[in-house]
Amino acid sequence: LDLKDTNLIPLQEEMNISKRYLDIMSLRFSDHLNVILNIDTSICNTLVPSLILLPILENSIKHGYSYEKTDLEIELFILAVFGVVVYYVYNFYSRVFYGTTILNNIY
Description:
By secondary structure, the chain is of the alpha+beta class. Helix content is 27%, strand content 36%. The strands form two sheets. Strands 2-4-5-6 form a four-stranded mixed beta sheet, covered by helices on one side. The protein is globular, with a radius of gyration of 14 Å.
């Protein structure tokens, strides 16, 4: 993972990095973490800020677990809306959305 001096990377590369993180978290939480990915594949070559997804995913996992709720299911959405890339994560158990919008022209 070498992103030194890299501000923008293709969405596909960002997803590959995020999937590695999610793989580690899946090992850590075993059967208690379920992640659903909904990615608009038509925008995979769109340039996005590097490492923009990690804080969103980390927060959804960190704040999703509690002593009362040991199982966690989160859903990641990445889609294009009117030429803008929109990221959000939905935490099913706490019913919380985490997300951001990247204003860049993808068309």
